[in-house]
Amino acid sequence: MPRDDVTAETRQSFTKVGTRPLRPDGVDKVTGRARFGADMAAPGMLIGKVLRSPHAHARIRSIDTSKAEALPGVKAVVTRDDFANRTDELRDILVNVMAREKALYEGHAVAAVAAVSAAVARKALRLIEVDYELLPHVIDVEEAMRPDSVLLHDDMFTAGVDPVPDQPSNVAKRCEFGHGEVEKGFAEADIVIERSFRTEASHQGYIEPHACLASVGADGQGELWCCTQGHFMVRDTCAALLGMDVSRLRVIASEIGGGFGGKTTVFIEPVALTLSRKAGRPVKLVMTRDEVFRASGPTASTSVWVRIGVTKDGRITAGEAVLKYQGGAFAGSPVEPGAMTAFACYDLENVRAIGYDVVTNRPKQAAYRAPGAPMAAFAVESVVAELADRIGMDPIEFRLKNASREGTRSAYGPTFGPIGLVETLKAAKAHPHYSAPLGNNQGRGVASGFWFNFGGQTCVSLNINIDGTVGLAVGTPDIGGSRASMCLMAAEELGIEYDRVRVIVADTSSLGFNDVTDGSRVTFASGMATIQAARDAVKKLCARAARMWDIPEDAVVWEGGYAKPAGANAGDFQPLSLRDIAAAAAKTGGPIAGHWEFNAENAGPSFATHIVDAEVDPETGRTSILRYTVVQDAGKAVHPSYVEGQFQGGAAQGIGWALNEEYIYGADGKLQNPGFLDYRMPVASDLPMIDTVIVEVPNPGHPYGVRGVGETSIVPPLAAVANAVSAAAGVRLTSLPMSPPKILAALEAEKGAQAAE
Amino acid sequence: MAGHHVSTTINGDAFEFVCEPDETLLDVLRDRLSLTGSKEGCGTGDCGACSVILDGRLVCSCLVLGAEAEGRTIATIEGMADGDRLHPLQRKFLEHAALQCGICTPGILVAAKALLEKHPDPSETEIRYWLAGNLCRCTGYDKIVRAVLDAAAEIREGRDAA
Amino acid sequence: MVQVRLSGTFKSYAGGRDAFEIEAANVRQLLDGLGEACPKLRPILDKGVAVAIDGEIYRDSWFQSLRPDSEVFILPRLAGG
């Protein structure tokens, strides 16, 4: 197989990797010293606030800002007129950042002010007069697809259809994946089950609202401090929207209080910069929680139809799905990954998944942890559970019989290399949880899940300090402990102690471009770049030792943190430590540093299998999660505690999505629950301990075998919980969230059906 | 609006500030006193990231007015460590990897400290219900609960030994 | 010649055809050849795609080499969370 030149043989033994040291940024974070997005201030700073559309869909006839501008203390007001129009791929981002002809959803930014205080800024917003022409709206994905639906964009013609339709619609794109002949496959089946499923939009729910501090000087140079998953992305996007040279904008990533994909784009950052440019003063802009819900990027709501056929002995003969995802007011719902991942866990001869990307009058969706995959897995894994039950086969045995493994042609096309699904299934089956007894009204659910994992553009710099300590600069914001993993990998390569490596997330002027922290890529890609930068430094350290000994460079090897003569022939010299070589650096050629920049490929997919026990109260419809176990392939766990943390966090988010979380809209198209009280995320008393099993099937694309772990963990829980609740309630639940009223209704319907029989 | 002049004690130190009548204690701490360890996650008392202890009682500082601090005693995350000696809860949070992004951590530590001062030997369930007012979106709470249990045990042992 | 397969929306730009034989030793040659064979596809390819080679997913890294018997798929470029 073609491999990038950086991927050496997978290493087998480690002294640092796989241990659990304290994270280097830990003390800052337990003492309140760490500075997050909203924690920064600047001299002369103004406060920015955004005026948002109160309507789900409206034409903006005019905006009169004169009264706001006249208010004492107001230093700048901006509207659509302050942003140059675009027709390129940034057009949707621009229009989402500041509405142009129409307000496309409730919460869509319409104007913004910068003033000397928050109170003045709020007052100024009330003085801005917007003349709206109200338009009918559409919120539901199925309704938006109807030919007679309200249209959001009269220039949207469904892509992926040949010939291109001559009428515009709310369907941005159609996609199709699969192989074989599904009808032939279904004809071979003894049992075929088809069902329709619904999921509601959920929000990533990061506790830190979007926040930034922008400062643009009269010389056109700007600085931006913000919480983001990718400050290089923020820099490039903002520079383009403001018409600035990229070199004139420096973006510094603050500590980031959660993102989960929701901070992989811009919302307020270009607005703050525009306000600052206009006012000539620094502007701080922080979203309220209400704004986060209404105007950041929740995930898609979906409608998914699935049909799967199986023989009596448990072989799946065909799988088919039609997935409809609405992603808010702009194209780009994650239906493609939904359709690609839907059947990824299964080795299928005949499979087809068709996806529709649909727009509605809701906020533009943003990525959310394995975007698109959990909803597809919910549908497929629910039907898989039902089929296993119908043929009387253990659900894990059934999955094992049909599981994707190395050499399987994936449902989305390519053939899988070494993957760990079978290993997760076997570990789940062997886990004591799987055979533990269940009580009344209790049920057990199992589900598997898949995510691709990404690599991407990455650049790191590793500096050897005079005392032999190491400064490592990475360009990927640390969202969940990645700095600890970077230090472990650098220490492993250099053969020095973990705490002699310090790592920073460098600003955009200090490193080459780095893609955002997304796609579970950081430990994989920044980690690989760190390893390579360390190897680059080692080469230079060996060269210095060679000069100090006056022997050829290739006669020096690096072992356990020391330069040593390669053998007896090389000469008899006392090994030189990294500290010895560093101390002499000024006299042997100057500073020593290692660098690496590349486009990381071969991220290596990750699979997981989850087991969950749920109890359903038949009186109230309330579900309790009694026990939860996550089994996932990490390739190689660099810092096992933070790998477990990713497993547990994904499971908890999935439980919330399955049981409680949803965007609730009124008939007026307005969000009714834009706060944590009514958008109910799991709290500590809602959850049990979440047990974890780390499976390690090395990824041949990484020198240590690492696979990303951040996203796969949210793929199985929707289905696993639905399978457990359905088993406990004795009725199949097909609509998320499985809130108490829905469960009660399902129980009532089942009772009615039984009475009728 | 006329400002209120307020004298208060924060983490053992006397503070004086002037605030607007509608300004929250959280705004005062963060914007006027540069004590940004307390975080604003919601501003409606639902997430607990702004938890502080006011005269011995755990409160969301976003639901308290700055003016209400007059003559009272406030403890924030910034006062939790004793100089360079971390509180056992802070240490255990690091040892158990009980934080990922860290934004909820100050509030959870303040809340957990308030719990252990009242109930030195809480059960897992008691910890879960006590912390139900503090949202964490990263961890699934598992490692947080374990860290609190472990810190409680260490504090009790320390007391027994003393 | 490398056989490249299309999925997702790409097939529709190729008049429903899902496989092409292209003379290519690397990804750039493959994308150029595919764009020539199927002009409607060219702007889509230019926007950015992913290329799966023997089961590994690459972004459109031009110089990634291909063997004549490589299994090659054009896939949509995806976003992660």
Write structural notes for this entry.
The complex is a heterotrimer of chains A (757), B (162) and C (81). In chain A, the strands form six sheets. Chain A has a seven-stranded mixed sheet with strand order 3-5-1-12-9-10-11, sandwiched between helices. A five-stranded mixed sheet of chain A has the order 7-15-14-13-8. Chain A has three domains: 26-31 and 455-600, Aldehyde Oxidoreductase, domain 4 (2-Layer Sandwich); 45-135 and 208-257 and 263-295, Aldehyde Oxidoreductase, domain 3, CATH 3.90.1170; 301-453 and 604-756, 2-Layer Sandwich (Aldehyde Oxidoreductase, domain 4). Helix content of chain A is 29%, strand content 23%. In chain A, helix 10 (335-341) runs parallel beside helix 11, helix 11 packs parallel to helix 20 and helix 19 (640-659) packs across helix 20. The longest helix of chain A has 28 residues, at 522-549. Chain A is built from 21 helices and 26 strands. By secondary structure, chain A is α+β, with helices and mostly antiparallel strands. Chain A starts with 25 loop residues before the first helix and ends with a helix. In chain B, strand 3 (51-54) and strand 4 form a beta hairpin. In chain B, 56% of the residues are buried. In chain B, strands 2-1-5-3-4 form a five-stranded mixed sheet, with helices on both faces. Chain B has five helices and five strands. Chain B is of the alpha+beta class. Chain C has a single domain (2-76), classed as Beta-grasp domain (Ubiquitin-like (UB roll)). Helices cover 26% and strands 28% of the residues of chain C. Chain C has three helices and five strands, in the order βαβααβββ. Chain C has helices spanning 10-13, 27-37, 42-47; strands at residues 2-6, 19-22, 49-53, 56-59, 72-76. In chain C, strands 2-1-5-3-4 form a five-stranded mixed sheet. In chain C, strand 3 (49-53) and strand 4 (56-59) form a beta hairpin. Chain C starts with a strand and ends in a 5-residue tail after the last strand. Classes of the chains: A alpha+beta (757), B alpha+beta (162), C alpha+beta (81). The interface between A and B is large, with 60 and 61 residues.
